[in-house]
Amino acid sequence: LQGIDPVSKRCHFIAHGIGWGVYKRDPANAKNQISLINPTCGYGANMGIIEFYVSSLPGGSLRSKDVLMSICNDNTTVDCNHILGHMLLVDTEGNLTKALEVCKIFQDKQRRHFCLAGAFMENETATNLVSHGYLPESFLNFPARIDEIEKLCRSYDGEEAAACWKEIAHAAFFKFNQDPKAIFNFCDTAQTKEGAVLCKLHSIPEIVPAENFDLVSLKYMCTLEKNYTFERNCYSTIIGSALHSIPKNEIDKVVKFCLTLDGELSDICFAHIGSILKIREFGRVEIQEICQTVPLKFRSKCLSGNINSPQSVGKGID
Question: Degrees (nearest 5) of the Cα angle 231, 233, 239?
Answer without folding.
Answer: 105
